[in-house]
Amino acid sequence: MNKYKVDAVPHLICGGFNVEETENALIDLKFLGIDNILALRGDPIKSEQIFQPNKGGHAYAIDLIQQIGELNRGKYLDDEHQNSPTDFCIGCAGYPEKHFEAMNLETDMMHLKAKVDAGAEYIMTQLFYDNKKFFEFVDKCRAIGITVPIIPGLKPITNLTHKTFLPKFFHIDFPMELSKELEKCKTNEQITELGIEWGVNQAKELIANGAPVLHFYTMGKGTAVKRIAKEIF
C-alpha cells in the first residue's frame, strides 16, 4: 500500500478468531492506516464438513459486519479505546449463482440485504463467467432495495483442470458457449488464450453496462490478468 499508493483491502474472516481477537486485528489495521475491509464468514477448515465458529467468535459475516460497525461508532469491547471511532469502509460477498449453502436464491438475497442493512457499503461477487447472471443478480438486488455498488468478481481460466475444478469448488456454471470452446482445448496454453479472450470480452461488456470497478481473483498468478488489463484499460 505504501509502495504503490493503492488501497489495501484485507479479507477479514470469522473463522479462527474470537471477537476480542477480531477487535485487536481491527485496531491494528486502523493504526496501519488501512480503512477498507472485506468482511467474510470464511470457508470450513478441511477437517470440517460445515463451518464451525471459534469459541467466542462470529458464526456469520453479518455478525462481523456489525462488530466493525460498532467500532465505526466508537464502541469497543476494550474500554481503553472507547470514543475513538474507526472509519472502515465495509464490503461483503454476494453470489450471482447463489451461495452453495443457501436454501434458495431468494433466501440468499434476503441474507445479502441484511448484511447491507447492517453496514456493508459495497458487494464483491463470487467469480462468474456468464455476465447475464451478473446483470440478473444486480437487478434482483435493486428490486429488494440494495443500492450499494456491486463489484463483479472475475478470474481468467488458465489451465485444463479449471474445466472441472472451478465449477466444483466455486459452485458456478460455465455458459454453454464457453463450455463448447473449453472442450476443444487440449493444452494449458490453449486454455490460457481462451481464458484471456473470454476475460477481455466479459470485462468490456461489464464496463459498458456500468460496472463500478472490476475485481480480479489472481490466486497469486497475475500474468493472464495483466494481459486482460492491457486490453481493457
Protein model, in words:
- By secondary structure, this protein is α/β, with parallel strands linked by helices.
- Helices cover 43% and strands 12% of the residues.
- It contains 8 helices and 6 strands.
- Strands 1-2-3-4-5-6 form a 6-stranded parallel β-sheet, covered by helices on one side.
- β3 (89-94), α3 and β4 form a beta-alpha-beta unit.
- The radius of gyration is 19 Å and the shape is globular.
Question: What topology does this entry show?
Answer:
Elements: E1 11-13, H1 19-31, E2 36-40, H2 61-72, E3 89-94, H3 105-118, E4 122-127, H4 131-143, E5 150-154, H5 162-170, H6 176-184, H7 188-208, E6 215-216, H8 223-232
Parallel strand pairs: 1-2, 2-3, 3-4, 4-5, 5-6
Helix pairs in contact: 1-2, 2-3, 7-8
N/C terminus separation: 21 Å
Strand order of the largest sheet: 1-2-3-4-5-6
- The structure class reads alpha/beta
Strand content: 5-15%
Number of helices: 8
| Main sheet attributes: strand count, strand direction, barrel closure | 6 strands, parallel
- The helicity comes to 40-55%
Radius of gyration: 19 Å
| Shape assignment | globular
Following the backbone from N to C, one meets helices and strands in this order, namely EHEHEHEHEHHHEH
DSSP strand tally = 6
Mean pLDDT: 94
Unreliable stretches: none
Short structural summary:
By secondary structure, the protein is α/β, with parallel strands linked by helices. It contains 8 helices and 6 strands, in the order E-H-E-H-E-H-E-H-E-H-H-H-E-H.
Tags for this model:
alpha/beta; six-stranded parallel sheet; 8 helices; 6 strands
